[in-house]
Design a protein that fits this description.
Strands 23, 24, 25, 26, 27, 28, 29, 30, 31 and 32 form a ten-stranded antiparallel sheet that branches. An eight-stranded mixed sheet has the order 9-10-11-12-16-15-14-13, with no helix packed on it. It has one helix and 33 strands. A hairpin with a 5-residue loop joins β7 (131-140) and β8 (146-148). The protein is mainly beta and 504 residues long. The protein has two domains: 11-339, Glycosyl hydrolase domain, family 43 (Tachylectin-2, Chain A, 5 Propeller); 349-488, Jelly Rolls, CATH 2.60.120. The two termini are 27 Å apart.
Length: 504
Amino acid sequence: MRYKEPKHRTILEATKEELAQLLEKSKNDNWKPIYHIHPEFGLLNDPNGLAYFNGYYHLFHQWYPYGTTHGMKHWAHLKSKNLVEWTREKVALIPTEDYEAHGAYSGTALEINHQLYLYYTGNIKLDKINRSANQCLAIMNGEGKIEKYAFNPLIKGIPEGYTGHVRDPKVFKKNDSYYMILGAQRVNETGAFIVYQSSNGLDWNFLGELTLKNLNQSLGYMWECPDYMEINGKDLLIFSPQGIEPQNEKYKNLFNVTYAIGMLDLETLTFEVESFDEFESGFDFYATQMFKGKDGQTLLFAWAGLGEFEYPTDEFGWAHCLTFPREITIKENKVLQMPAKELSLLRLDRESKSDRCQGVVLIENKTNTYELNVTLETNNTNLFGIHLAVSDEEHLNLEFNKSSQTVTLDRSKLKHQFVEEFGVYRQSQLTIGDKVEVKILMDNSIAEIFINQGEVVFTTRLFPLKTSTNIEIFSDQFMTYQYEKYDLKQGIVKREDDLEVFNR
C-alpha cells in the first residue's frame, strides 16, 4: 500500500456537495481579483504548460482543491483567445496513477507533431521524509482532449548523485533535438540543473549536469522551475533557487527568482553567464514560466504568492493568484518586463490629468481594479512617489529617493499584515533622472508596479479595507505630474455551472 496522508486526496474523491460548499465559502470574497487568474477555491501555485496552440492560449496551474495548504497537486486549466478573457476548463491532470501518487507537479508544454505535449513531474513520497520523482507526459490533441501517455513515466526515478528533489521539466527543441532541463538537488544538498536529450520527445537519455560558468556566488540548496528562452540572439535562463542568502536589499524573500543572460552550449552542457541578477524586486513572486505568444513575443506568468505562509484570504478557503502576463525583452544584458499589450482590451472609462504639485495630491477612486499610468517630472524634487489603497487608516507606499537613487515599496502602513518575518519593504537601485514613468496594475489583492518601461518591477499582494481605494501622488518639492487611469473589466469568464469544471 502506498504512503498516504489525508491531504493526498484527488478531486475525484469529493462529493458534489463538498465541492459546492468549498465554492460557496470563497465565491463572494471582495479580495478576489477580477482580471488576474486565481482559484475558485483552494490553493493555486506554479503556472504550468503555457502555450499558444490551435488558436488558443492554454494556461495550466498547480491546484490543491481542499484548502490553502500544499496538498495533492492537480493541473487546473484555463484558455483564452486574447490573454485577458479566460474560461475555466475541466481539470486537466488528476493524479490517479502510481507514477504520480502524491501529485502532478509542475512542468511545461511543447507542440510536437501537431499535438501539445504536457511534461510534468509525478511526485512520489516514500514516507514523511523521503521522496522520489518521475517525469511524465500528457498529450492534448487538436480537439483539446487530454490523455496521459500510455507508457508513463518517461523517466523513472532519479539519477545517481541527486536527492528525490528532481522536478519541473523545461522541454524545448534546439538543433533538431529535444532537451529537458530539470531542477535538482545534489546529495550534498546544493542546487543544480540536470539535462536529458530526446530525438522524438518520448525517449530520453541522461546527458549530465548543466554548468553555469562565470557565476561566483552560492545559490542555495535546491533550484526549482528552470526556464529557458532565446531572445534576440541571447539565451535567457530563469530559475528559482531555494536557500539563497540576502545580499543587502536583494534576495530578501523566503524564496527568490533569478536570471542569467548568456550563451547555452548543449554540446558541452555549459551556460556561459554574461549577466546575473534578481528577476523581480517585489514581495510575492515565484515560479516563472515563459512561452511564445501568437505574434512570436516572449510572454511570462509567475505565481504571486509564497509557500507555507498564511494569507488573509485563507479564512475564505482560497489562496494566491498569478501575475498578469508580461512581455519579456532584453536590453543591454538586462531583462525588461512590461504587461502584455493585450491589457488594453480590458480598459473601460479613462480619466486623465496634468498639473504641478508640492505635497500630496488626492485622486479619488472607487475601486481597486484599475490600470494607472503616471509620469513624474521631478526637477529638484528629492523624495516623491505614489500611495495606493489609500484611506484615513492605511496606504501602500511607493517612494523614490534621488539622493540614494533608490525606489522602495513599503507595505508597513497597511492594516492587514502578513509574512512580516521577511520584512515590510522591498528596495531596488534605480537611476532616477528628471523623469520617472510608472505603470500600476491594481486588482483587489495584488499590485504589479512597472517602473521606467520595466527596468524595475515590484509585485505585492495586499488586502486593503473596503474603504481604501483612493490614490495619492506626493513630493517634497514642486514637480509636474501626468496620469491616466482606466477602470478595467472582468477577465475571468463565468460559467453557468461553476462546478462543471471539476469533472463531476
